[in-house]
């Protein structure tokens, strides 16, 4: 249930600043069906946008001041335009910084932020925030930048402004999603292809299992994996692991780099196969690819954790035809593809296994593929 709404964020803005906003914009969170840690390797990924969104109410200022109020923290950041804040306000202020670096004349801004995208769940809450802010500010300045350019604005904001070395998948799906479709993204050339993703017509449901184990992409592990992939590509003499075959990956001498390369090249192929299956409505064959993806992320890329592994195994025992961790890893969420009408059994199985270990209960979301960022 998306509790963040246009009326509520507009009222939040008025309560915080004492005058009405010019308008409100929203961008979705995302769940990646398959293709994990492939984006920064020039590979393929297959995300869908969620119904859960981040909303921003916005008005421009002329005095060089930025104010950002978040309902989730109930705090207001105030600082000069061009500065990048610390903490939660780093993301919106980094977007302003990135836009200014591209020549957009910014005189100041007031922002109110509300969100129903779970933070730290691997569902791209950060890109939902940066893309909603970027689209709002761009449109309030008569849209000098295309959506393709805004993707780059938001990537720079996260990579260089915040210090979170993400790829481009999250920003692309937030700005280019279509309802009832997944988006096959080729990260080598930036091209996209909409892939039909109408679950209920096919007799399936997709469940997100938020383990509520928090992670941060800026904590060093994500960056380490990225640098290991660069080193593996260099060892193979290729520009990126997208250019390597599975046989070539096995020739990398260093065992850690070999495992990282193995994951990337096999994950790209799994993503390609998943898109082919979805095009022909063969959902029943996707489950094995989900299972193999999780095993690869756990064993070769080493970005899973005990909670994610338990969630995946419990979902499969509960009747899911396939399950895998999704997102950057080190916590966050798993997804499970289940026959329509059987989600209660899957959820109960996961809850039992978490309770047996004394862990707090996970959260569950049903996935309906939504649309892209837009003015409300």
Automatic annotation (TrEMBL):
Keywords: ATP-binding, Carbohydrate metabolism, Cytoplasm, Galactose metabolism, Kinase, Magnesium, Metal-binding, Nucleotide-binding, Transferase. Residues 11-59 form the Galactokinase N-terminal domain. One of its GO terms (molecular function) is metal ion binding. One of its GO terms (biological process) is galactose metabolic process. The keyword Transferase applies. Residues 275-352 form the GHMP kinase C-terminal domain. Its EC number is 2.7.1.6. Residues 92-177 form the GHMP kinase N-terminal domain. GO terms for cellular component: cytosol. It comes from the Bacteria. Belongs to the GHMP kinase family. GalK subfamily. This is Galactokinase. The gene is galK.
